[in-house]
Design goal:
The chain contains no helices and eleven strands. The protein is mainly β. Strands 8-7-10-11 form a four-stranded antiparallel sheet, with no helix packed on it. Strand 7 and strand 8 form a beta hairpin.
Length: 135
């Protein structure tokens, strides 16, 4: 190695090329904080969500999975973007989970037929899933 600069901002490594042997470089990127300590990047949260049956009448099972433990909020919205029902707000362990929506709103009144969106969110990711209720 002729020269390297590992201050966290420049990523360069100059290898002596005067030999006939191959050079292998392994780079690990870390972010530098204000106090000059290094920390590993956050895990990217991946969420999947689906429901069955879809279309449904009036009950559907919503299945979701996350790849790390997280605070999860799961709500149902109508096509106008109005929140219809809050189904979940708690800390969930990584893996697959399910919750059932009975087709009622937060006042326990039946929702009309139509398109609804299930919104699942954590502090780092959000995903929407389209559902259809047919009565």
């Amino acid at each position: 190695v002729e020269r390297s600069d590992f201050d966290g901002f420049e990523d360069q490594l100059i290898i002596d090329t005067s030999t006939n042997y191959p050079a292998y470089i392994v780079c690990t990127y870390k972010s530098k904080t204000a106090n000059d300590s290094f920390e590993t990047p956050d895990i990217i949260q991946h969420i999947t969500i689906n429901n069955y049956p879809n279309p449904f009448n009036p009950t559907t099972k919503i299945t979701y999975s996350i790849n790390c433990n997280a605070n999860v909020k799961l709500d149902i919205y109508n096509v106008k973007g109005q929140k219809v029902r809050g189904l979940l707000e708690e800390t969930i362990h990584k893996g697959e989970h399910q919750v059932v929506w009975d087709g009622n709103d937060d006042m326990d009144k039946p929702c009309p037929s139509g398109i609804y969106f299930c919104k699942i969110q954590t502090d780092k990711a959000t995903k929407l899933h389209k559902m259809m209720m047919i009565k």
